[in-house]
Design goal:
heterodimer, A: 420 residues, Spore Coat Polysaccharide Biosynthesis Protein SpsA, Chain A, globular, B: 234 residues, Helix Hairpins, 8 helices, 86% helix
Chain lengths: 420, 234
């Protein structure tokens, strides 16, 4: 794993440290915490938790020049000694997803080296890094014996759309676990799960290094680890870069589809899904502000249907193409993407990714107009909906993914028989 | 005198017969080579046909983005086309081997030249194949990228890229074959320059309004969505 990112003196200090109970990764270049402040915050957070003597905080704010691996003094009444370790600032050329993935690898490497009992990683936007977040990610691991604590955020109806439309329902249908955010980016892990992830990451694999964000929840599901969710509160979304939406989709969906391929033997046996234990309190949200320009998204969807049918035709069966053509002919206000159709589209793209029918990058980018079509349909449907209606809408979509899972299994097992 | 005539006739007859006799082994060798190569061609073609059929080559060819190949193929089957190409190539090689059996200077030189030319043909074929694959890959990249950027003329851009790369590959292949010499290069330069100039004029003058409308729409869409829309993806 990636210990190369850590400077030699800090590595030597880690060697001398020998072991720790907890590692907390606070990632993101502008989290506003220098090493010392982060260590103080973590020390206060961990103080109420039992049996934590030593903790290490890994930051990637690039403050390499600051004194590192310096223990925050342990106080009385079991307050833990906290050490800090700084990673170099993320490269400007890398995308946010790549930066988080690399930083994740470094945090896991440090945690694995120190043989920790729990590891918490906060990789959301700067303003969210609070004591409560760290506490809610670490406490279920240390005191309740869970192996993975996945985040649950309070979000407006037009936030977390990729999670709502693909990631969460896909994870639920595949692995039978109802997670709101299966790819984090904030997680709490037990030492046992960490060792399992580190073990499989060191195995030689096709398709390059494992993406830890995509593989953490699926590894927990496949290994029979105890998983729960913690309400972390409001998570501010970074502004959407519409010009690079296809890159975002490719970066997020690519590793998820790779992971799906890796776990194929497991998920083909799973039927149905179960809700997971949840901790923490939900935060009430203010009214949604701003409007969504659905016309632009419908335009993109229609343009895609006009021009990309020959590409989609290599991945999707004729019935799906026919339905897409019909949808594209509808006036924008009448566009509704049926849940079954959407679930099958996602499954067909996952299969196309596995079979490498076309270049994987082309495949992942060509889903963008379809995704925008889904957003437009969802935005229209949820225009006046409240949080309860939104949740039940997403529940219906997730059930559609589960209902259509036999279709995925059949196509996965006999792709030629079902070939478009 | 008649003796001399008879002698001359008999001499020319002997000479002709001996020349014919000297050709006979070559002819027999040619026939044997053709028969053996026909046998080999039949076996190889059958093997190719069977192995391609087992991997569903016809369907895969269409999947790889070459559905038009079926139209050119006998019985609309690229598998059959590949098998026939293999068969006729073996037959041609057998014919060349048979021709070299004549041991004549002309045939030997012809065969030597043909064999010396073969690498050029192979190189040209490789260039064409690579050019076709690259053209399709780039065309698809441009098409998907342009659609994702909401450009109305995505297909036009994609077709333009595909034909530019294809024309470039064909020119390189013809150059490799040594056909046309400088004319091909000159023609390519004129054509390529013409296409670029035409595109520049089309974008700069003819499609000025179209492009500016499209760009305006992009800018307003991007800035508008960033400011107004409370949309988040992760």
């Amino acid at each position: 794993m990636e210990l190369d990112a850590i400077s030699q003196p800090e590595l030597e200090q880690l060697e001398r440290l020998g072991g720790a109970d907890v590692v907390v990764g606070i990632l993101g270049p502008q989290h506003g915490q220098d090493g010392v402040a982060a260590a103080a915050m973590v020390r206060e957070t961990l103080a109420p938790l039992s049996k934590v003597a030593r903790a290490v905080v890994v930051c990637n704010n690039g403050t390499q020049s600051q004194p590192s691996v310096t223990p925050e003094p342990a106080g009385e009444n079991g307050i833990p000694a906290v050490f800090t370790c700084n990673l170099p600032a993320p490269g400007a050329a890398d995308t946010p997803q790549q930066n988080i993935s690399q930083a994740y690898r470094s945090v896991f490497a440090v945690a694995g080296k120190l043989g920790v009992r729990a590891c918490g990683v906060v990789a959301s936007q700067p303003q969210e890094v609070t004591r409560q977040w760290i506490y809610h990610l670490i406490q279920p691991v240390l005191e309740l014996g869970f192996d993975l604590v996945a985040p649950r955020y309070s979000r407006q109806k037009m936030e977390g759309l990729l999670n709502r439309s693909i990631l969460s329902p896909l994870h639920r249908a595949l692995y039978g676990e109802q997670l709101q955010n299966p790819v984090g980016p904030d997680f709490g892990l037990s030492g046992r799960l960490l060792q399992q992830i580190l073990g499989q990451s060191s195995e030689p694999r096709h398709g390059g290094a494992t993406n830890l964000l995509a593989s953490t929840a699926s590894t927990a599901a496949s290994g029979g680890f105890q998983v729960c969710e913690s309400h972390l509160g409001l998570r501010t979304q970074p502004p959407t870069d519409w010009t690079n939406l296809s890159s975002l989709l490719a970066e997020v969906l690519g590793p998820v589809f790779v992971e799906m391929e890796r776990q194929a033997a497991l998920w083909q046996r799973i039927r149905g899904s179960k809700p997971l234990p949840r901790f923490g309190c939900t935060e009430s949200l203010s009214e949604d502000s701003g409007t969504v320009d659905v016309h632009r998204m419908v335009e993109s969807f229609q343009l895609g249907t006009q021009n990309l049918l020959e590409v989609w035709g290599l991945l999707l069966p004729p019935t799906t193409l026919l339905e897409l053509r019909k949808l594209a002919r509808l006036p924008p206000e009448q566009l509704r993407m049926p849940d079954d159709l959407w679930a099958r589209i996602v499954y067909d793209f996952a299969l196309g990714h596995r079979l490498r029918i076309i270049s994987r990058d082309h495949l992942l980018r060509s889903i963008t107009p379809l995704y925008l079509g889904w957003i437009a349909s969802y935005a229209r449907e949820m225009e006046t909906a409240g949080p309860v209606e939104v949740e039940s809408r997403i529940e219906r979509l997730s059930r559609a993914y589960e209902t259509n899972k036999p279709y995925l299994v059949s196509r996965w097992r006999w792709p030629d028989r079902f070939s478009p | 005198m008649w003796d001399q005539v008879r002698q001359a006739l008999s001499h020319s007859m002997t000479k002709m017969l001996s020349q014919l006799a000297s050709l006979l082994p070559g002819i027999v060798a040619l026939i044997v080579a053709l028969l053996v190569s026909a046998l080999f061609a039949w076996v190889l073609a059958a093997a190719v046909r069977r192995s391609l059929a087992s991997i569903e080559f016809d369907r895969r060819v269409a999947q790889w983005g070459y559905p038009g190949l079926a139209e050119w193929s006998p019985e609309k089957s690229p598998t059959l086309l590949a098998a026939r190409i293999v068969g006729w190539t073996v037959m041609l090689i057998g014919f060349l081997i048979g021709m070299s059996g004549f041991d004549g200077t002309l045939t030997s030189e012809l065969v030597a030249r043909l064999f010396a030319y073969l690498p050029n043909v192979l190189a040209a074929l490789v260039v064409l194949a690579a050019g076709s694959i690259i053209a399709r890959f780039l065309a698809r990249s441009v098409l998907i990228g342009a659609v994702n950027m909401n450009l109305q003329y995505a297909r036009l851009l994609s077709a333009g890229v595909k034909w530019l790369v294809t024309v470039l590959a064909v020119t390189i292949a013809i150059d490799h074959l040594g056909i046309g010499g400088g004319i091909i290069r000159l023609a390519f330069g004129i054509m390529f320059g013409g296409i670029v100039l035409a595109l520049a004029l089309a974008v700069g003058l003819g499609s000025k309004e179209l492009v500016s409308r499209s760009l305006d729409r992009e800018v307003s869409k991007t800035s508008g969505q960033n400011v107004q829309e409370p949309v988040g993806h992760l």
